[in-house]
């Protein structure tokens, strides 16, 4: 459920793209310092966005460094990081740990998948101690999501809202005057992520007999319109909350992600599905 909250590079100014890469590399560096190479491997785009968003809101001083890395051994990469970056790294580890545990229950090879999650067991213990509210929210999210999946609920709003509630708590680093805006922004973005992820997996889930909340709706003649209108509604509400925040720093970069980048996967899905229809008719 990662990789949806990213940039639309084609519509981004070069300086904003470089700025995004600097945050990306800064988060990668933070993950390496705090969790080693295993932390770098999981680098979630969603938390790069959270890093840029919270830095835009709070405007904490950023440490700038140029470093070589494993991915770019021949050229130093510009990195931006601070305590907010470290927070985003902690939340990334928290999300990935519980995703691995959930995957272990969803699919076969449970020993292998649980073993993969166990790599992050000690780091997650530290994250729980440092950020108990966020950790409890993610734990509760996984438990309630599992319950919905077992009951095979077709209530899109309820099941997507679980992801939204968890991401809303993650967007709130500390309770303050902006918390409710951030919480609601994360809530609607989280719902979008869940529903988009389910839409992308729909055909495979149908084939395998897996749970997917879109399945009861897939044969409706207006299914495509239903999906697009539902996703649009989630992102519209997210954008509405974002625009209430007094963000100036990197605001165009953030708008590129919120208004365009988050649609990348959806656009890919439409092209793929249109291609599949074309093959079926020839």
Compose a concise summary of this entry:
The protein contains 12 helices and 2 strands; from the N terminus they run H-H-H-E-E-H-H-H-H-H-H-H-H-H. With 282 residues, it is mainly alpha-helical. Strands 1-2 form a two-stranded antiparallel ribbon.
Order of helices and strands: HHHEEHHHHHHHHH
Sequence stretches where pLDDT stays below 50 over 5 or more residues: none
List the total number of helices: 12
Helix percentage range: 55-70%
Overall geometry:
globular
Q: Hey, roughly how much beta strand do the residues contain?
A: under 5%
The mean pLDDT is 91
Structural class: mainly alpha
Q: How many β-strand stretches?
A: 2
Looking across the biggest beta sheet, what order are the strands in? 1-2
Give the N-to-C terminal Cα separation.
34 Å
| Computed CA radius of gyration, to the nearest angstrom | 19 Å
Quick one: biggest sheet? 2 strands, antiparallel
């Amino acid at each position: 459920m990662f990789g949806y909250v990213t940039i639309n590079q084609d519509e981004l100014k070069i300086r904003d793209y470089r700025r995004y890469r600097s945050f990306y590399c800064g988060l990668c560096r933070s993950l390496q310092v705090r969790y080693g190479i295993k932390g770098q491997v999981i680098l979630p785009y969603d938390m790069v966005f959270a890093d840029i968003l919270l830095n835009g809101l709070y405007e904490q001083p950023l440490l700038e460094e140029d470093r070589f890395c494993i991915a770019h051994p021949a050229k130093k990469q510009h990195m931006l990081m601070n305590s907010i970056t470290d927070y985003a790294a902690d939340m990334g580890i928290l999300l990935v740990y519980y995703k691995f545990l959930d995957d272990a229950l969803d699919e076969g090879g449970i020993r292998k998948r649980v073993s993969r999650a166990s790599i992050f067991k000690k780091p997650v213990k530290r994250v729980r101690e440092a950020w108990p509210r966020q950790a409890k929210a993610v734990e509760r999210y996984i438990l309630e999501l599992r319950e919905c999946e077992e009951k095979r609920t077709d209530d899109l709003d309820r099941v997507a809202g679980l992801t939204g509630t968890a991401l809303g708590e993650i967007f709130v680093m500390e309770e303050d005057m902006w918390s409710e805006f951030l919480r609601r922004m994360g809530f609607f973005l989280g719902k979008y992520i869940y529903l988009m992820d389910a839409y992308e997996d729909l055909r495979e889930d149908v084939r395998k007999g897996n749970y997917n909340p879109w399945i009861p709706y897939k044969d409706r003649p207006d299914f495509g319109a239903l999906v697009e209108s539902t996703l649009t509604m989630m992102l519209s509400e997210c954008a509405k909350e974002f625009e209430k925040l007094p963000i100036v720093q990197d605001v165009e970069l953030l708008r590129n992600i919120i208004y365009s980048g988050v649609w990348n996967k959806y656009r890919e899905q439409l092209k793929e599905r249109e291609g599949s229809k074309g093959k079926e008719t020839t």
